[in-house]
Amino acid sequence: MSIESIAQAKASISETAAYKTLTAFFDDGEFTPIANLAKSKDTYAEVVAGHGYAGENEVLAFAQNPDFCGGAMSKAQADKIKKVYDLAKMRGLPIVGFYNSKGGRLDEGYALLNGYGEVLNAASKLSGVVPQVSVVLGDCIGTGALNAVSADFVIATKDSRLALDTTGKNSDIDYNAKNGIVNVVAEDESDAIEKVKELLPYLPENNISSSGWGFENELEPDTEGCVVRRTVDGDSVYKISKEYGDNAKTIFATIKSDIVGIVRTTGGKLTADDANKISKHVRFCDAFSIPVVTFVDADGFDDIKSAAKVSSAYAEATTAKISVVTGKAVGSAYIALAGAGANADMVYALPDAVISPINPEAVVLINEPDLLNVPVAEQAAVVEQYAKENLSAENAAAQCYVDDVVAENELRDALSSAIQMLWFKRVKTEAKKHGTI
């Protein structure tokens, strides 16, 4: 090719939708293209890839190109994406993949299947090594969807489609969000790009780099919000999978500029969805040594398996773990989220917290049944009074089940001090490949 024809080819690629997506994503529209002129039969490879900075965070990215064969997966596309993963491994950088494809180039047969497999294998090997974010901007149906959801976080525009079934069954983004497959729903491509840029500062570059100082400005807490917002830095809350799991919230935030992963339970019993949501968040934070702060208010779990799953996630995690009992921590909820099962490094409780091996009503019925010899309308008040006197945070602290009882206006300082103390925590674990719970 002549210099002129090469220049024309580059100009043609720069006018495609995928190239414009990366231009919008990278700061000032500037990035270093990767394998820019790679060919896929009679067209250029159906993906654009590059390296640059997004919101001042160094990152590698690729975007499927619907302007070339509908963005269909091919051997050339797979090779190009694998190169991005190879560079991410060498440099230890996060990967952001933008998905918009009509499927695969079926005329490539087994080579196509092998390409899908190699990309999935590369993503799996780098899981827990560098953060991975998928952004679904259009169709992502079939085997390509498997690649997309293998990332740590999936962001999708509300009008896109995501499903393994090639018929597109259950591809609606609202369905995927309610089932925990999509973590963040965006209005459109511009909003999706903005949400990625908002997420990246919370993520370390890789599993051996230091996280925690991505925000320079410490803002005062939001005094009108929930207990989490009243504790963390103002405007620092980034919600994960808010449509999934009603009784558990998973969040990234900062406390006095230190990045933390937050789990908050909101009362009642935790369901299987809550357990899956909590476990995934804790395991991600642990993989990248992000401190986990858990705000506990729960009556236990709906089923034994869910309790075991959450307990295992916390027990295996070697990152800093701090729990705060804000309401009730009853039975399995205390054990899995704050007690011995969670292997928490520090446990705090607010003064009105209730910590009990079983439901307070059952405790009264077993220990002091005569107290319930009052009208039914008055029994709740009797149980509440008994819990305050016998199942209090103060009693738990006296027996070393809680490290300290703090007023809410002291909580922010207490958590910041604990995070600093535990920052360089070192734990020797058992020699094994992985857990099986």
What does this molecule look like?
It is a single chain. The protein is α/β, with parallel strands linked by helices. The chain folds into two domains: 200 residues, 2-enoyl-CoA Hydratase, Chain A, domain 1; 147 residues, Alpha-Beta Complex (2-enoyl-CoA Hydratase, Chain A, domain 1). Helices cover 36% and strands 22% of the residues. It contains 14 helices and 21 strands. The strands form five sheets. Strands 12, 13, 14, 16, 18, 19, 20 and 21 form an eight-stranded mixed beta sheet that branches. A hairpin with a 7-residue loop joins β12 and β13. α8 runs parallel beside α9. The longest helix is centred in the N-terminal third of the chain and has 17 residues. The chain starts with a helix and ends in a 15-residue tail after the last helix. The relative contact order is 0.07. The model has no long low-confidence stretch (mean pLDDT 88).
Give a quick precis of the structure.
Helices cover 36% and strands 22% of the residues. By secondary structure, it is α/β, with parallel strands linked by helices.
List the SSEs and their pairings.
Layout: H1 3-14, H2 17-25, E1 31-33, E2 39-40, E3 43-44, E4 47-54, E5 57-64, H3 75-91, E6 95-99, H4 110-126, E7 132-136, E8 139-141, H5 143-149, E9 153-157, E10 161-163, H6 173-178, E11 184-186, H7 189-199, E12 238-240, E13 248-255, E14 258-265, E15 269-270, H8 272-287, E16 292-298, E17 300-301, H9 304-316, E18 321-330, H10 332-337, E19 346-349, E20 354-356, H11 360-367, H12 376-390, H13 393-398, E21 404-405, H14 408-422
Parallel strand pairs: 5-6, 6-7, 7-9, 8-10, 9-11, 14-16, 15-17, 16-18, 18-19, 18-20, 19-21
Antiparallel strand pairs: 1-4, 2-3, 4-5, 12-13, 13-14
